[in-house]
Amino acid sequence: MLLDSLMNLIPELNKAFLETLYMVAISLSVAIIAGLPLGILLFVTDRGLFLENTTVKSILGFVVNMIRSIPFVILLVGLLPLTKLITGTTIGPTAASVSLSVAAIPFFARIVETSLREIDKGVIEAAVAVGATPWMIIKDVLLPEARPGIVHGITITTISLVVYSAMAGIVGGGGIGDLAIRFGYYRYDDTVMITTIVILICLVQIIQFAGDRIARLVDKR
Predict the structure, then answer these.
(1) What's the CATH code, domain 2-218?
(2) Per UniProt, what is one Pfam family of this protein (predicted)?
(3) 35 near 105, Cβ under 8 Å?
(4) CA-to-CA distance for 30 and 188, rounded, in angstroms?
(5) pLDDT in tens, 140-154
(6) pTM of the model
(7) Which DSSP string corresponds to 121-167?
(8) How many beta carbons lie within 10 A of that of residue 11, not counting itself?
(9) 95 close to 81: Cβ distance less than 8 angstroms
Protein backbone atom coordinates (compact mmCIF):
# COMPACT_ATOMS: atom_id res chain seq x y z
CA MET A 1 0.00 0.00 0.00
CA LEU A 2 2.79 2.42 0.94
CA LEU A 3 4.79 1.45 -2.14
CA ASP A 4 1.77 1.95 -4.41
CA SER A 5 1.19 5.37 -2.87
CA LEU A 6 4.80 6.37 -3.52
CA MET A 7 4.71 5.08 -7.10
CA ASN A 8 1.57 7.08 -7.83
CA LEU A 9 3.24 10.14 -6.33
CA ILE A 10 6.38 10.01 -8.51
CA PRO A 11 5.02 12.15 -11.43
CA GLU A 12 3.88 14.85 -8.99
CA LEU A 13 7.16 14.65 -7.09
CA ASN A 14 9.19 15.04 -10.29
CA LYS A 15 7.17 18.08 -11.31
CA ALA A 16 7.39 19.64 -7.83
CA PHE A 17 11.14 18.98 -7.60
CA LEU A 18 11.80 20.62 -10.99
CA GLU A 19 9.62 23.59 -10.03
CA THR A 20 11.65 24.03 -6.84
CA LEU A 21 14.92 23.93 -8.79
CA TYR A 22 13.47 26.43 -11.28
CA MET A 23 12.46 28.89 -8.55
CA VAL A 24 15.78 28.57 -6.75
CA ALA A 25 17.78 28.97 -9.98
CA ILE A 26 15.98 32.16 -11.01
CA SER A 27 16.05 33.81 -7.59
CA LEU A 28 19.66 32.80 -6.91
CA SER A 29 20.75 34.25 -10.26
CA VAL A 30 18.98 37.53 -9.49
CA ALA A 31 20.45 37.55 -5.96
CA ILE A 32 24.00 37.15 -7.28
CA ILE A 33 23.59 39.69 -10.10
CA ALA A 34 22.04 42.35 -7.83
CA GLY A 35 23.27 41.31 -4.38
CA LEU A 36 26.99 41.06 -5.19
CA PRO A 37 27.41 44.69 -6.33
CA LEU A 38 25.07 45.83 -3.55
CA GLY A 39 27.20 44.05 -0.95
CA ILE A 40 30.38 45.54 -2.42
CA LEU A 41 28.81 49.00 -2.36
CA LEU A 42 27.77 48.56 1.28
CA PHE A 43 31.38 47.74 2.11
CA VAL A 44 33.35 50.30 0.07
CA THR A 45 31.12 53.23 1.11
CA ASP A 46 31.70 52.51 4.80
CA ARG A 47 33.69 54.89 7.00
CA GLY A 48 37.44 54.87 6.37
CA LEU A 49 37.32 53.08 3.02
CA PHE A 50 38.30 54.31 -0.44
CA LEU A 51 34.74 55.21 -1.56
CA GLU A 52 33.49 56.45 1.81
CA ASN A 53 29.99 57.91 1.54
CA THR A 54 27.94 57.83 4.71
CA THR A 55 24.76 58.99 2.96
CA VAL A 56 24.81 56.15 0.40
CA LYS A 57 25.82 53.67 3.10
CA SER A 58 22.97 54.74 5.39
CA ILE A 59 20.30 54.67 2.66
CA LEU A 60 21.38 51.28 1.30
CA GLY A 61 21.74 49.86 4.80
CA PHE A 62 18.25 51.06 5.75
CA VAL A 63 16.63 49.53 2.64
CA VAL A 64 18.48 46.22 3.10
CA ASN A 65 17.58 46.00 6.78
CA MET A 66 13.96 46.95 6.09
CA ILE A 67 13.46 44.14 3.57
CA ARG A 68 15.30 41.61 5.75
CA SER A 69 13.11 42.48 8.74
CA ILE A 70 9.91 41.43 6.95
CA PRO A 71 9.01 37.74 7.45
CA PHE A 72 9.03 35.96 4.10
CA VAL A 73 5.38 34.88 4.24
CA ILE A 74 4.30 38.51 4.74
CA LEU A 75 6.69 39.66 2.00
CA LEU A 76 5.28 36.98 -0.29
CA VAL A 77 1.73 38.27 0.15
CA GLY A 78 2.74 41.95 0.14
CA LEU A 79 4.52 41.63 -3.20
CA LEU A 80 1.56 40.02 -4.99
CA PRO A 81 0.68 43.27 -6.86
CA LEU A 82 4.30 43.62 -8.05
CA THR A 83 4.35 39.94 -8.97
CA LYS A 84 1.16 40.39 -11.00
CA LEU A 85 2.69 43.41 -12.75
CA ILE A 86 5.92 41.60 -13.66
CA THR A 87 4.71 38.09 -14.51
CA GLY A 88 1.01 38.64 -15.27
CA THR A 89 -0.02 36.12 -12.60
CA THR A 90 0.27 35.55 -8.85
CA ILE A 91 0.49 31.76 -8.87
CA GLY A 92 3.08 29.32 -10.15
CA PRO A 93 6.86 29.05 -9.78
CA THR A 94 7.64 32.06 -11.99
CA ALA A 95 5.43 34.30 -9.87
CA ALA A 96 6.95 32.94 -6.65
CA SER A 97 10.43 33.72 -8.00
CA VAL A 98 9.72 37.46 -7.74
CA SER A 99 9.27 37.37 -3.96
CA LEU A 100 12.14 34.91 -3.57
CA SER A 101 14.43 37.25 -5.51
CA VAL A 102 13.43 40.30 -3.47
CA ALA A 103 14.10 38.39 -0.25
CA ALA A 104 17.39 36.93 -1.49
CA ILE A 105 19.05 40.14 -2.75
CA PRO A 106 19.53 41.89 0.64
CA PHE A 107 20.27 38.58 2.34
CA PHE A 108 23.13 37.81 -0.05
CA ALA A 109 24.31 41.44 -0.05
CA ARG A 110 24.88 41.33 3.72
CA ILE A 111 26.80 38.06 3.40
CA VAL A 112 29.03 39.61 0.72
CA GLU A 113 29.62 42.66 2.91
CA THR A 114 30.54 40.42 5.86
CA SER A 115 32.94 38.40 3.67
CA LEU A 116 34.67 41.60 2.53
CA ARG A 117 35.06 42.80 6.13
CA GLU A 118 37.17 39.72 6.85
CA ILE A 119 39.85 40.94 4.44
CA ASP A 120 42.96 42.38 6.07
CA LYS A 121 42.68 46.18 5.89
CA GLY A 122 46.43 46.34 5.20
CA VAL A 123 45.91 44.65 1.81
CA ILE A 124 43.39 47.30 0.81
CA GLU A 125 45.57 50.15 2.10
CA ALA A 126 48.53 48.80 0.13
CA ALA A 127 46.46 48.76 -3.06
CA VAL A 128 45.35 52.36 -2.45
CA ALA A 129 48.96 53.41 -1.73
CA VAL A 130 50.23 52.15 -5.09
CA GLY A 131 47.55 54.15 -6.90
CA ALA A 132 45.10 51.41 -7.81
CA THR A 133 41.72 52.66 -9.01
CA PRO A 134 38.57 51.70 -7.09
CA TRP A 135 37.60 49.26 -9.86
CA MET A 136 41.04 47.65 -9.77
CA ILE A 137 40.86 47.27 -5.99
CA ILE A 138 37.42 45.64 -6.22
CA LYS A 139 38.38 43.36 -9.13
CA ASP A 140 41.93 42.42 -8.19
CA VAL A 141 41.92 42.63 -4.37
CA LEU A 142 38.48 42.44 -2.79
CA LEU A 143 36.82 39.76 -4.90
CA PRO A 144 39.78 37.33 -5.02
CA GLU A 145 40.40 37.68 -1.27
CA ALA A 146 36.73 37.25 -0.38
CA ARG A 147 36.04 34.44 -2.87
CA PRO A 148 35.73 31.57 -0.32
CA GLY A 149 33.38 33.64 1.86
CA ILE A 150 31.27 34.59 -1.13
CA VAL A 151 31.00 30.94 -2.20
CA HIS A 152 29.88 30.05 1.32
CA GLY A 153 27.39 32.92 1.05
CA ILE A 154 25.99 31.52 -2.19
CA THR A 155 25.62 28.13 -0.48
CA ILE A 156 23.77 29.65 2.49
CA THR A 157 21.55 31.71 0.18
CA THR A 158 20.72 28.66 -1.96
CA ILE A 159 19.69 26.66 1.11
CA SER A 160 17.58 29.56 2.38
CA LEU A 161 15.88 29.79 -1.00
CA VAL A 162 15.04 26.08 -0.91
CA VAL A 163 13.35 26.68 2.46
CA TYR A 164 11.60 29.85 1.25
CA SER A 165 10.44 28.11 -1.93
CA ALA A 166 8.65 25.54 0.24
CA MET A 167 6.82 28.43 1.95
CA ALA A 168 5.79 29.74 -1.47
CA GLY A 169 3.48 26.74 -1.73
CA ILE A 170 1.15 28.51 0.71
CA VAL A 171 0.05 30.91 -2.06
CA GLY A 172 0.18 28.37 -4.88
CA GLY A 173 3.79 28.99 -5.82
CA GLY A 174 4.35 25.40 -6.87
CA GLY A 175 7.29 23.25 -5.91
CA ILE A 176 7.76 20.77 -3.11
CA GLY A 177 6.04 22.99 -0.53
CA ASP A 178 2.93 23.25 -2.67
CA LEU A 179 2.90 19.46 -3.07
CA ALA A 180 3.24 18.95 0.68
CA ILE A 181 0.34 21.31 1.38
CA ARG A 182 -2.03 20.03 -1.33
CA PHE A 183 -1.39 16.30 -0.99
CA GLY A 184 0.05 15.99 2.52
CA TYR A 185 -1.73 18.58 4.65
CA TYR A 186 -5.13 18.95 2.98
CA ARG A 187 -5.49 15.19 2.38
CA TYR A 188 -3.86 14.16 5.67
CA ASP A 189 -1.38 11.98 3.77
CA ASP A 190 1.62 11.31 6.01
CA THR A 191 3.45 9.52 3.19
CA VAL A 192 3.56 12.71 1.12
CA MET A 193 4.66 14.83 4.07
CA ILE A 194 7.48 12.46 5.05
CA THR A 195 8.61 12.06 1.43
CA THR A 196 8.80 15.82 0.83
CA ILE A 197 10.69 16.33 4.10
CA VAL A 198 13.22 13.65 3.13
CA ILE A 199 13.66 15.22 -0.33
CA LEU A 200 14.26 18.67 1.18
CA ILE A 201 16.77 17.29 3.70
CA CYS A 202 18.68 15.44 0.95
CA LEU A 203 18.65 18.50 -1.32
CA VAL A 204 20.03 20.77 1.43
CA GLN A 205 22.74 18.25 2.31
CA ILE A 206 23.85 18.00 -1.33
CA ILE A 207 23.95 21.80 -1.70
CA GLN A 208 25.95 22.21 1.52
CA PHE A 209 28.43 19.49 0.55
CA ALA A 210 28.95 20.95 -2.94
CA GLY A 211 29.30 24.48 -1.55
CA ASP A 212 31.92 23.43 0.99
CA ARG A 213 33.94 21.59 -1.65
CA ILE A 214 33.87 24.54 -4.06
CA ALA A 215 34.83 26.98 -1.28
CA ARG A 216 37.91 24.87 -0.46
CA LEU A 217 38.88 24.72 -4.13
CA VAL A 218 38.72 28.49 -4.63
CA ASP A 219 40.51 29.30 -1.36
CA LYS A 220 44.06 30.12 -2.46
CA ARG A 221 45.06 31.77 0.81
Answers:
(1) 1.10.3720.10
(2) BPD_transp_1
(3) yes
(4) 36
(5) 889 998 999 999 999
(6) 0.89
(7) HHHHHHHHHTT--HHHHIIIIIHHHHHHHHHHHHHHHHHHHHHHHHH
(8) 9
(9) no
